[in-house]
TrEMBL record:
Main function: Ligates lysine onto the cytidine present at position 34 of the AUA codon-specific tRNA(Ile) that contains the anticodon CAU, in an ATP-dependent manner. Cytidine is converted to lysidine, thus changing the amino acid specificity of the tRNA from methionine to isoleucine.
Protein name: tRNA(Ile)-lysidine synthase
Catalytic activity: cytidine(34) in tRNA(Ile2) + L-lysine + ATP = lysidine(34) in tRNA(Ile2) + AMP + diphosphate + H(+)
Domain remarks in the Swiss-Prot or TrEMBL record: The N-terminal region contains the highly conserved SGGXDS motif, predicted to be a P-loop motif involved in ATP binding.
Positions bound to ATP: S37, G38, G39, S40, D41, S42
Native organism: Rhizobium dioscoreae
Name of the gene: tilS
Gene3D superfamilies: HUPs
Major enzyme class: ligase
Entry-linked NCBIfam families: lysidine_TilS_N (TIGR02432)
SUPFAM superfamilies: Adenine nucleotide alpha hydrolases-like (SSF52402)
InterPro entries cross-referenced by the UniProt entry: Rossmann-like_a/b/a_fold (IPR014729), TilS/TtcA_N (IPR011063), tRNA_Ile_lys_synt (IPR012094), tRNA_Ile_lys_synt_N (IPR012795)
Record-listed E.C. numbers: 6.3.4.19
Entry similarity comment: Belongs to the tRNA(Ile)-lysidine synthase family.
Amino acid sequence: MPIDAVTSGATVLMPEAAATEFLHSLSKPAHVLVAVSGGSDSTGLLIALAERLKSHPHKDITLSAATIDHGLRAAAADEAREVAAFCASRGIPHFVRRWEGEKPETGIMAAAREARYGLLADLASDISADVIVTAHTLDDQRETMAMRSARRGQGGHGTGIADAVLFDRRIWIVRPFLACRRADIRTFLGRHGLSWFDDPSNEDIKYERVRTRRDLQAEPMAGVPVDIGADRAALSERAAAWLDDWVTIHAQASCVIDRAGLSADRAAVAYALSYLAAVFGGKAYAPGHVQMERVLEFVNSASPGRRTAGGVVFDLRRDGLYLMRESRNIAPLRLLPGEKGIWDGRFEISNSGNAPVRIVAAGTENMIIFPATMPKGVVLRARAAMPLAVTEGEAKAAAVTVVPYLAPFDRFLTRFDLTFANRLSAAFGREAYMRLPLSVL
Ligand SMILES: Nc1ncnc2c1ncn2[C@@H]1O[C@H](COP(=O)(O)OP(=O)(O)OP(=O)(O)O)[C@@H](O)[C@H]1O
């Protein structure tokens, strides 16, 4: 790995080196879609990749660029046009996608991000791109880690931005500039005589990220470990082995963990239990640190009983720990003919009939799908939180297909968690996640 500078604890790459390393590691042939907002980081990423390909032409790699107009700022459409003109001048195909649809009143940043990734993934599919790259930097990484550690206990965790994330089981998003400093990217652009747009929201202190950035400005660029993901990836592997050894999934709605497994590898138990809780609770994130600590304390106690965390019942019995969705607060889902939706964050349901259906938590009538050895109380509870499809207005049975949905992984899956996620996906009868399009990293 070419290292241009090392500060205490953090490996820093220059933009050119980062681009070279990414292109080298990429599985070929590859069509790379660069997400370019027009800011310094993403303009720098596009240019670093394009320059590298110009000096070392590679017939198996093609570049395209895309700008998402979120429709939130008046200037955004003009900026997208300028990025388009800039790309045209360099001979790089460029696409603009606009976020139509309603904008929420609160959580606009998160909604914009969701929409952005969805639009980029749709575009990637339209133009047959194999991978999306975004220009998250070491500065973003520091800010994220600072914010997440401040939030530990409320669901936050100490790990930072992943260098690769699988979106919606569909396409990998890779971040080649994660070890680059913004200042170096700007110097690089300056050397090429290029300018960039400054997004005014980057200065707006109503956003936590902007405040964190200001706080961090006084600190030297240090303290971000080189291999943030390596420890987590190792833990993911241990947890996958633990899953094989001790856990059985029943009817995609409940699981039992052998009691002996609970006192096995503690870190792996904590990791796996958090994700099992997220999956059975239908949540993208595991319950918070404090809540999970309480659950772990409880499962390590000798006395049977029940606890609830994140909408999941932890039912500790003599033979094992049973997990299942609490049958409260499960919102119904209405699906028109041909529509598909996620119900309770746990099942992806498609209406393949020709009448609207309502999916409710009424349980399946079929007791046989649970093994006879399962405690009756557990079966009743798990059944009560299972989906039932009811055809509206007609007496006939609804025609639906139901596929388990793994909420912590099926939308955004970080590379660190891939091994565990694949094992869990198989245990739920689902296919493996798409392979990372990087051969060496
Ligand atoms: N409007 C946009 N069009 C295309 N790409 C964008 C746009 N906004 C952001 N990106 C891409 O995402 C990267 C990160 O942008 P930014 O830091 O603004 O997003 P974020 O919301 O903080 O990140 P995250 O996507 O992790 O939530 C940019 O470097 C760029 O590659």
